[in-house]
Write the structure tokens for this entry.
Amino acid sequence: MRIYAQTPARRTRQVLADLLAIAVIVGAAWFARLVHRTIMLLVGPGQAAQSAGNRLAGGLHDAGNAASRVPLVGGALKQPLLDAAEAGTGLASAGQAAEHTVSRLAFMIAFVLVAVPVVTVLLLWLPPRIRWLRSSSQAQRLLAAPGGADLFALRALTGPLQDLAGLRTADGGLAAAWRRGDREVIDDLARVGLRRVGLQPPR
């Protein structure tokens, strides 16, 4: 199976389209990764709040347990410290929730930044490439079959007239020359028909 056309103009367009598609996909992935890393910098305050809340809660909880051993007033001292420890736990939970939210936001934005350009490129670039691969494979099979050149000559005759502008026959009638089996004219017409799909006749 031929990947690129044999005619220079179409082959150049195909190569440029492939390179552009690859560049867009790679560029989108790089940009999405950059944005993801930038957004993830916002995780720092949430992590700091979570760490500070855990340390505060742990310290106040230990202080409350120690205060409970003070005679007579130990119970009264313990409860406010434990209540303050709960506030520290709430601060840690808030920091964890902020970290989780930022992480999800970074992932979603990066996913959109990758998915939108990649899907757009695939929808615009892939179907024409697949159609050309199929048509070129079919054209090569038809050309190799008996009478294949005649079919492409007929295709040239039924196509745009400007493609036939450079072809001449002894009596000036391309269709008549094709009907009577003039091999030189048929080969010229087949060359025109093949050129429309980006192929050249075998040497």
The chain has a mean pLDDT of 77. The two ends are 18 Å apart (CA to CA). The helical segments are 8-40, 43-67, 74-144, 148-157, 174-179, 183-195. Residues 75 and 94 are 29 Å apart (CA to CA).
